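User: Teach me something about this protein's shape.
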Amino acid sequence: MSEMFDAVDALVASRSALPSAEERKRLRVAHGLTLDDVAGALKVRRATVSAWESTKKPTEPRGPEREAYARLLKQLAELYPAPVPATFTGTPAPAEARPLSTGAASEAAVMTAPENTQTPAPAPVAAVPAATPRPASTTRPTSSTSRRPGAKKAAPAGTPAGEIDPRFENGPLAVVDVEDGKVLAYCTGGLVLDVPAKSLPSLVEWTLKEAKLGQPKLSGPGRPADPLLVLTEAACERYGLPVSLTAEEKDAGRIPEGHKVVKQLVRAEWKLTKRGFGPWARIYRPAKGSDRQCVQLCIPSWNALDPRFWDHAAQLPPAELARVLGTYASRVMTPRGSTAVTGLELMTALHPPTHAVRDEETGSLRQADTKTPGSLGSDPVDCAPPEAPNGHPVLNALNLPRFHVRGPSEMLFEEAYDWARPMTDTECILRYLVGLDVNMAFAAGANGLNVGLGEPTHVKAPTFDPKLPGSWLVDLSHVDLSRVKAGKEWVELDGSLLPSPFTPKGDRPTGPAWYATPTVAYAQELGYDVAPTEAWVRYENGRYLDGWYGRLRDAYLATMADLGVDADLAPADFLTAMDGYKDRDPELTIVVSAIKATVKGGLGKLRERPRGEGWRPGERWRALERPTWRPDIRAAVISRTRINLHRKIVKHAAFTGQYPIAILSDCVVYAASGPSPLDFLPYREGKPLPGGFKLGINPGLVKHEGTQTVLWGEEVREKFNAPELNLARSIKDGTVTDVDNGE
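Assistant: First, the predicted structure itself:
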């Protein structure tokens, strides 16, 4: 009888009800799970899970997989109920709150470069028409009045596509200014609120209780973004803050704890983070349950908006500044500090370390005992010794001599290219030097990259596995660039005109050295055997940066589309669209720069060094206490980015016989007979060389960086007596002020 019951149970389970394919995907993404995570748990292929979620023609799981899949989806549905559509009275949902259906969004999902064969579904990004302000909200703060002056192209609030969260109906942030004695808060979409607060503590209270500022969470297990207030110089004066910092305060990064405004906050039982009251101050009270009380301040006159990354944003009028920061917030996230800090915070927001689970005894939600799948968790992990920068405490156990300088066989040196060579006689008789720049190169390098999520494991005499993230000690000096595989075919090249793919300076290795997985895998791809002698590998791994890449890619493509550079332009049309694009809307150009800085800065933060703090070599520093202090992830991204570029260079050389004369990070310079990239890139009937350089705005494709004459190049090298001066550093505007020092 029991066998019959089991058979009946199996029949029922084989028909377990499943939600729609769209809902299946929503639940998986809400919990931060990748397709690989689900496939591994259910013991099926990644493609199978993808087919179950296909909105065009989904397949249905069968047998025990269906029962397990249904169980997973049921538990996720309890944690992440389907959102209730918002009800509107009067004005319909604005266009900018609807999902992108054509143009940049559709193109963003298609990567044509060979290193980007799989593109993850992008995180929701609101479509932001550059010139369309958000219609006025039907609900207003009870003790404030609001109005909409003719603000220039104000950006809408950054709510997820198709939804408006009533808690944050006035957008993610406001620029607070004083005009004619009145305090005004310039929000996104042209909205202006009257601010009744007379002191900074009351301004914080008003922000949390009445302003309706903030941003919905980016991931199911995450939390909403805190409201951001940007204080102009006039607002600083009104609330008792200095307009600028003294030299001593700049060095400290904050105003003194004894400042009268800090004392006001303390009396009102508000707290500051350990960094104190600086350009990006966080004012909070300890959370009670899910009730979080926190407001962030941005003070441009204290250099919060560093002009290296935000250009002239700090000098913009309040409405225009609200537009710039609001557009960035809606497409990336509400700024949490510098672009570097925000880049790092975006990683965590998309993969929160913890999540809620339902307590089986009480039925209530509580924090899970384990970290969220696919995240880095809440606890920091130490890097492997070869991955550690000098002065890191893990090196103490090695008992190195005091002034010992570690070499490649002791330390991982995965950095971007800085390489140049003298021009050949053939190149000298050509007329031009043309620079190509890889769009969002490091973001493209992060796309689809498998990285470690946990602690490293030391392995002796390992067998190299290109799918296993880690650092490998291996001798690659035998790789001969004069004969390599380009795809499936062996090709003969002039190896003396190529940089080595294994070192940042392009020098051929002379013996064993530490390399990240993508570098060693490329040696195999070129047709050579590898035999590591030891390694530090991470068996817990995943594509941690996929969502991060997707959101930044979409932000970049949407903003460039607003500037008239679409992702589907023909090569000549693309070059025309890029010519002068910055002049079409200087404010949106600031957003583009900030997005790029978010990529590079976020990756740089993964290996942040001590910043004062009274640190001494061998001691821990503050950044080491972050789960996101991961030099191995940074090294893997840089390794893959450098390899991606070298692969294109090899393809181009094999097909055209042309070799680069200089490379700096993501810029490569060629000698050419004409001033345009189309004068030397091998397009045939509008189609690029497969695996080579392709003109376009997508990450991983290239744009024109600049053109100078060969005569210019020879003259500056002769002037500084530097035949290998890196001309990629100055190809954009031709300005060379000093001997190349690598900075």
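Now, about its shape. Residues 173-335 form one domain. The chain is about 30% helix and 15% strand. If you'd like, I can walk through any region in more detail.
User: That's plenty for now, thanks!
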